[in-house]
């Protein structure tokens, strides 16, 4: 799997949301201003070539659907970010969030509760 460009990711977000879509269905999800049909059609074809999107042809019209789930891509991008920016350390991620974000006491409590409720034997 490879990282998507910003334009590719925006189109994938629309396809994930709709589950199945023609290019004309995707356009309203990307604006305003609504991008050109030909531009989005090109991006969708690139996503097909990259293996992110499949299609079913109805004559000259194509219905597109995701081949990679949003959850799979989220996991891939998080692991890439973890490796590229945090030396592969979850502790570095948590430390960054605590230091860079102004978390409320309630948010910190919620994070602690998530950690405490995680099954560490799984």
Structural class: mainly alpha
What form results from the Cα inertia axes?
elongated
Mean pLDDT: 92
Q: How do the strands line up in the largest sheet? A: 1-2
Query: Uncertain runs with pLDDT below 50, 5 residues or more?
Result: none
Rg over CA atoms, rounded to whole Å, is 19 Å
- Count of helical regions: 6
Profile the largest sheet. Answer: 2 strands, antiparallel
Helix content percent band: 55-70%
SSE arrangement, N to C: HHHEEHHH
CA distance, first residue to last residue: 26 Å
* Strand segment tally: 2
> Oligomer, anyone?
single chain
Beta percentage is: 5-15%
Write structural notes for this entry:
The protein has 122 residues and is mainly alpha-helical. Helix content is 58%, strand content 10%. The protein has a two-stranded antiparallel ribbon with strand order 1-2. A hairpin with a 2-residue loop joins strand 1 and strand 2. The radius of gyration is 19 Å and the shape is elongated. The model has no long low-confidence stretch (mean pLDDT 92).
List keywords for this structure.
122 residues, mainly alpha, two-stranded antiparallel sheet, 10% strand, elongated
Quick structural overview:
With 122 residues, the protein is mostly helical. It has helices spanning 6-18, 23-26, 37-50, 70-85, 90-100, 105-117; strands at 53-58, 61-66. The protein is 58% helix and 10% strand.
Outline the fold blueprint.
Layout: H1 6-18, H2 23-26, H3 37-50, E1 53-58, E2 61-66, H4 70-85, H5 90-100, H6 105-117
Antiparallel strand pairs: 1-2
Helix pairs in contact: 1-3
């Amino acid at each position: 799997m490879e990282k998507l460009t910003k334009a590719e990711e925006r189109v994938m977000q629309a396809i994930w949301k709709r589950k199945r879509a023609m290019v004309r269905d995707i356009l309203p999800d990307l604006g305003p201003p609504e991008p050109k049909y030909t531009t989005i059609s090109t991006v969708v074809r690139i996503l097909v070539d990259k293996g992110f999107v499949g299609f079913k042809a109805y004559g000259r019209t194509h219905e597109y659907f995701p081949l990679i789930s949003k959850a799979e891509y989220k996991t891939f991008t998080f692991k890439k970010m973890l490796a590229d920016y945090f030396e592969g350390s979850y502790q570095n991620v948590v430390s960054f969030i605590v230091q860079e974000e102004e978390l409320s006491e309630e948010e910190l409590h919620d994070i602690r509760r998530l950690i405490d409720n995680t099954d560490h034997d799984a």
